[in-house]
Each structure stands twice: as structure tokens, then as C-alpha cells.
Amino acid sequence: MQTGEMIAKNGWRLVYGAGDVGLMGTVANAAQDAGAPTFGVIPTHLLDWEVGKRDLTNFIITENMHERKKVMYMNCDAIVVMAGGIGSLDEFFEVLTWRQLGLHTKPIYLLNTNGYWDKLQGLLDHIIDEGFAGENIKTFYDVVDDAEALAARLRADLS
Questions:
Q1: 59, β-bridge pairs
Q2: Cα–Cα distance between 35 and 133 in angstroms, integer?
Q3: Fewer CB atoms inside 10 A, N or C side of the chain?
Q4: pLDDT for residue 83
Q5: Rounded to an integer, what distance in angstroms lies between the CA atom of residue 88 and that of residue 92?
Q6: Beta strands in 7-76 (DSSP E)
Q7: What stretch of H or E contains 87?
Q8: Cross-strand bridge partners of residue 42
Q9: Edge-to-edge strands of the sheet including 14-16?
Q10: Are 19 and 46 spatial neighbours (Cβ–Cβ below 8 Å)?
Q11: Do 78 and 157 form a contact (C-beta atoms < 8 A)?
Q12: How far apart are CA 100 and CA 20, in angstroms?
């Protein structure tokens, strides 16, 4: 809820996967309640499963997951990865890979609430230690601990 309110307070727009369930559904509702514009993108096969939130400012239905990620990426100014599962990891690794390949320079943040992404950071350190990635990949994303720290970084990076 804090993150959704923070988005509205700063006059930003939430771009996300258009679900009305789970953490992102809560963030979307909080952003809407606080007056933020919302832009949701959902593939046809997830309309029922993720309960497509049709009362968004913009609601886009795509054919597949890849198209969903592309549309979300094209319409965002920054990427924030909140606590989540395999889908969140998929989105993180795709934009991280694109960044590594020089396909974008948008800021990427891991919102590490209560240390949720600590083990992911350990995995990335392991990948670097084993020589499968350079230390520079750690410069492609930032880790923030809470919505307040995220807001400060977004204000600095997007100004």
C-alpha cells in the first residue's frame, strides 16, 4: 500500500501487469485510491487467473507474456521489482539482460522489503564469483529497503 501511495504522491504513473490480486493488486488499488494514473498490461491467458483489473486508466490485453513485458517496458520510466515469485524474477532477469546488452539505460530497483531479495543478491554474487558475469552487473540495478528510499532514488534518477 505504501508504494502505491508513494507513486501517487510523487505524481507518477503505475505501469504493471494489470492483475487485481496479490501484492501488485494491492499496490494498484492504493495508487488509484491516492489519485495516480494506472497502466495495466495483461495477456489473454491470465485475464481470469490474475483477475484482470479493468478499472485502470489504461488497460491493455496482449497475446502473450513476452508482448506483455515489452509493452510494460516501453511505457515505464523505471523498473521496480517488488517481492514476488517466478514471474517477478522473469521480469527482473529480462530487463537486467537487456541492460547488460546495452539495450536500455532505465533504472532498475529491487525493493528489498524485510530482506526479501537478499538471497537473490547472494545468487548474483555467486554468478559473478564463478565467472559467469562481470562485477559490473551490480551497477545495472540498485537495492532499496523501503518505499521511502525507493521514492528518493526515483526522484533523483528521473529528474
A1: 40
A2: 41
A3: C
A4: 96
A5: 6
A6: 14-16, 38-43, 58-62
A7: helix 86-100
A8: 61
A9: 14-16, 38-43, 58-62
A10: yes
A11: yes
A12: 32
pLDDT of residue 47: 85
CA 85 to chain centre: 12
Burial of 148 by CB count in 10 Å (0-12 exposed, 13-18 middle, 19+ buried)?
A: exposed
* Per-residue pLDDT in tens (0 to 9) along the chain, 159 residues: 799 999 999 999 999 999 998 899 999 999 999 999 999 999 999 988 888 899 999 999 999 999 999 999 999 999 999 999 999 999 999 999 999 999 999 999 999 999 999 999 999 999 999 999 999 999 999 999 999 999 999 999 998
Contact 13, 39 (CB under 8 A): yes
**Calpha distance 80→65 (Å, rounded):** 18
Q: Which residues of 40-74 are buried (b: 16+ CB within 10 A; e: fewer)?
A: bbbbeebeeebebbeebeeebbbeebeebbebbbe
Give a three-class secondary structure readout of 47-65. Answer: CCCCCECCCCCEEEEECCH
Residue of 21, 72, 79, 26 lying closest to 47 (CA atoms): 21
Which triple of cell numbers denotes residue 49? 487467473
Closest to 25 (Cα-Cα) out of 60, 59, 51: 51
- Provide Rg for the chain, Cα atoms: 15
